[in-house]
Queue: 4 jobs
Job 1
Amino acid sequence: MTDLENKVLQAATGEKRLNPDEQRLYFGTFAERVVLSIPLEESRLEDVQNRFSDILGQLNKKYDTLLVKISPKLSVSNQMVYMKTAQELHIQATIVDEKNAQSPYGIIVHSNQAENVANPLLSDQFPISHNEPKEAPKKGFWSKLFHKN
């Protein structure tokens, strides 16, 4: 009986979407369409903003149609960076402010069809390569004494 009551309540409130919780999580799209998700904290990083054009370019070659959804929890300047980058690559970008949405993501890039990406997180698909300078080999006593390499 409670299942019937839930359906009646949903119909009365106007919620007629398929799997609305998943759509709230991914800014109005389904999980199988998401090709890249950037958590809110990472989307605020300047490094991610600088790399976003290259990342979108790579994804644009891989998928036919891409759409960028931006969280309203980002600052206006961050939102504009992502909007401009997407527009430069002729990709539609929108800021999605959905009522009752508690998404941990700042940016969602998705296709208009099911792509079924196993793990769409930025850190898994495009890891940051830390090119740290290699340490010079330590010189021994005699090479220091005679200034030889």
Job 2
Amino acid sequence: MYNNILIPIDLEHVEMFPRAVEVAIQLFGNEKGKIHSLYVDSTKIHSISFTQVDNEVASQMRKEMKKRVRRVFEEHVPEEMQGSCHIRNGVVYDEILEEESRLQPDVILVAAGKPGVASYLLGSNAEKVLRHAQGNVFVIRDNKHW
């Protein structure tokens, strides 16, 4: 089946990560596999709010975010299945596709909320990863509107 799976972490929808890990474990079947994760910090790209925040405060916020990502990864991924857990800065879908290129996973598991009107106008990271990934992408649907 699969033995090398990439699961992006979205801290705004962290409740989806354990579900994705469950799916990954099912996809491993009887094989041993590794779950890799990526969190993309897009605050420097998409937010002007950090221009209002002191550099020291912003630095502390990023340190806390990194700790949270690591904690989520270690809490939900069984130790024997833990692969890499990276944090990057940039545009979410671009960084996921870059990580795919570097890691060459068998599959990427991405979470997606139930589409709303905004998704027709803006699209979503999951959609862009699905369209542009070189390999397999499975979308794990959440029934909530994001």
Job 3
Amino acid sequence: MSNNPKPRRRRSTEEVRELTLSTARELFAARGYAGATTRDVALEAGVTEATIYRQFGSKAGLFDQAVVEPYQRFWTSFTDQWTTELRQPRSGKEVVRSFVELLYDTLADNRGMILAYICITRFRSLPSESNGHGSVISHELLKMDDWVRQASADLGFTDLDNPVTVRCSFAMVMGMVLHDDLLFEPGPTHPSRERIIREITNYMYTALSARNPSDPTPTPT
């Protein structure tokens, strides 16, 4: 029997990218932007620093992409569901619930990374790759604006103040996730995930479906 070690399978570029981003999220969430270096990420992920710089351009670029990639996956998953729903229609409330549930779980799974991003962008100078054109999250929300404009009529949601309505909906879910420990006491009285998602869905659906285009609406400013 040969004692030669079995050759390791060569990882694809996409596998290396996903592993690097996953590792970066863990380290940035645990240590903050300043405390986690590209060398730390490279060692933990089993890649070279050169690979990180080749794929993301800089530490700031890696940080930005680590923040936004889970949201991109959420949006891809949600719009895939919407494509399916065009063939198998569901009620507007069911669509709202799927949005709330997917977004809630995405944000909850990446809460530490999002908090690190908020801290660095609010309290320290981050050499962002966005070049002064808003946060990476606001950039991604533009894609949601386009979808809402196309889908709201099909769902029966009329007279929406897009993009403000979109950001109110997003902020409601994000606020419940990020401020959970400030809003609720820990222990047995803490509401379950199901209760929180159900209540956000009820609030959001009621607000969206109650809009009446015949009501006078102030001109957006």
Job 4
Amino acid sequence: MIHTKQMALAATVTTAVLWTICSVMVATMPNAMLQLTAHMVHVDVTGFTWTLTWTGFFIGLLGWSVSAGAAGFVLAITYNRFSRSAHVAER
């Protein structure tokens, strides 16, 4: 069994940390991060630039963290239900 609230909190905190690290990297190495992003999503980013503001940082931090927390919560619930079904089938 996975504890749903703890899983949601772990996903939220992990995402917040990763978002912060990513934002720092964009702020300190914008060209390298733009090229990395281009490779990751298979697009030509010629002429693109980053728009990184404090407002954008906090909106992204909140949005991604809440979304990840909700996904972690649903993941834990789904896992627990499948886990219970597997135990019933084994009997």
